[in-house]
Specification:
Elements: E1 2-6, H1 17-30, E2 36-41, E3 53-56, H2 69-75, H3 82-89, H4 117-134, E4 139-143, H5 144-158, E5 162-166, H6 170-174, H7 180-192, E6 195-198, H8 201-210, E7 218-220, H9 230-233, E8 244-249, H10 258-271, E9 275-280, H11 286-295, E10 302-306, H12 311-318, E11 322-325, H13 335-341, E12 346-349, E13 362-364, H14 369-381, H15 383-398, H16 402-417
Helix pairs in contact: 1-16, 4-5, 5-7, 10-14, 13-15, 14-15
Length: 418
């Protein structure tokens, strides 16, 4: 089976959980010998792993250019061949000469989330029409609202069934202050989808109730984690017998509830002074959180190391005695699973999708800063509780694998194709 998949992020370029989930899903699918994935990205780095076919949408021509083979080969990155270029060029379906293209007849992408994001989403969907006419595939899979228009276009062109993957909705990102343009894109993608995969039952209910979708085509498809490499497993856990470290790691935005972490920290520090708090990440609320920490008089116990990437993330987990995810609305939340892999007990909000599959964690309402403070204090001061959550957490998370997710997704593909 061949899947035409549209995504906005993929490692090694990681902006958030979307890249991690896209990698996990495609890697899990790749373990099935008859499964092939064509993954379309706005602007690949060229360093993506080779277990799937990467299509750089910035290398797909939409305006005809007549160049010889050797010239085309010199212009293309290693993951794309001149044969690919000519194949796409021969399936240009309209006159796009009025578009802003480069000398190869391709559109440039900034990558990530630029100020003209909606223009890039539209351009991505135009190019999807060329790719869908050029490639052979059985099913279409589009990740998050950014690629839903591309998925819908590919379905219209090919007549193949469309799966969309809801990693978050605008209700999650905006605390209910929904952007009508984004909502419209999400709703259109869902209306046109034959199958809607949601990262949790929490998200599935949002899709059914807020986007008015048929429950029969909506499925909870929880995320997972990959086993840690030996290199990451070997990162030492420092001795924190004198001082404990409690960590928030993620985007510092209203969706993630960083202010509740700060308020809980202030309550904990009224009981003991032997705990430090770390808020790792970046986001539009970072300055406000620094101000709030100062207002609460706990700046001497608080650290803001900034955005963490790659190995730094796991060093941060390993250097922590407690990981806290106080999200106001978290469709899934892979971070607690990663922390548990590193042997760090986790506290998560009851408004988190991952709580549907995790038992060896402490769950509190995001707004209940007293319960959150009690949980933090208990883990930091009770070695038996720490040890229990550490050991049982590792066992639990080791059973949550992308290979199992890939098999569940494949069953849905098979149903659609039949």
């Amino acid at each position: 089976m061949r899947v035409l998949m549209f995504g906005w992020e993929f490692p090694p370029k990681i902006y958030g959980g979307l890249a991690v989930a896209s990698y996990g899903i495609t890697k899990g699918l790749s373990l099935q010998p008859d499964m092939q994935t064509i993954f379309c990205l706005p602007k690949p780095t060229g360093d993506e792993e080779k277990f799937l076919k990467i299509v750089g949408m910035n290398q797909v021509p939409i305006v005809y250019r007549d160049y010889d083979y050797d010239y085309v080969k010199r212009q293309l990155p290693s993951y794309m061949t001149p044969e690919d270029y000519y194949n796409y060029r021969n399936h240009i379906y309209a006159d796009f000469s009025y578009m802003n293209t480069n000398h190869m007849g391709c559109m440039e992408f900034a990558g990530g989330y630029p100020g003209n994001l909606h223009d890039e989403i539209n351009n991505f969907s135009i190019i999807a029409g060329v790719v869908a006419r050029s490639e052979q595939f059985d099913v279409i899979h589009a990740h998050d609202w950014l690629t839903y228009p591309a998925g819908v276009h590919a379905k219209m062109v090919s007549g193949k069934p469309l799966c969309i993957h809801v990693h978050a909705t605008d209700f999650d990102r905006s605390r209910g202050k929904v952007n009508p343009t984004v909502y419209g894109i999400e709703k259109d993608g869902m209306d046109n989808a034959d199958c809607i995969m949601c990262v949790s039952e929490l998200t599935r209910q949002t899709v059914i109730n807020e986007y008015h979708q048929d429950p029969r085509k909506c499925f909870a498809m929880h995320n997972a984690v990959y086993p840690l490499s030996q290199d990451l497993l070997d990162i030492p856990r420092p001795d924190h017998s004198k001082e404990k470290i409690v960590t928030f790691l993620g985007r510092i935005t209203m969706q993630k509830g960083p202010e509740y972490f700060v308020e809980a920290a202030a309550l904990v520090l009224k009981r003991t002074h032997n705990i430090r708090f770390c808020m790792a990440g970046s986001g539009d609320m970072m300055e406000a959180m620094i101000d709030l920490v100062a207002q609460r008089g706990i700046a001497d116990r608080f650290h803001f190391p900034g955005f963490q990437r790659g190995r730094q993330v796991y060093e941060c987990y390993k250097n922590s005695d407690v990981f806290v995810m106080p999200s106001v609305s978290e469709p899934f939340g892979i971070a607690p699973l990663e922390a548990m892999q590193c042997g760090t007990p986790s506290i998560i909000s009851k408004q988190s999708g991952c709580g549907e599959i995790l038992e060896k964690v402490i769950k509190v309402d995001y707004w209940d800063i007293h319960a959150m403070a009690d949980a933090i204090y208990s883990i930091c001061t009770n070695p038996s509780l720490f040890k229990y959550l550490q050991e049982e957490g590792i066992k639990e998370v080791n059973e949550i694998t992308w290979e199992k997710v890939g098999l569940r997704i494949r069953r849905l593909y098979d149903q659609l194709v039949r």
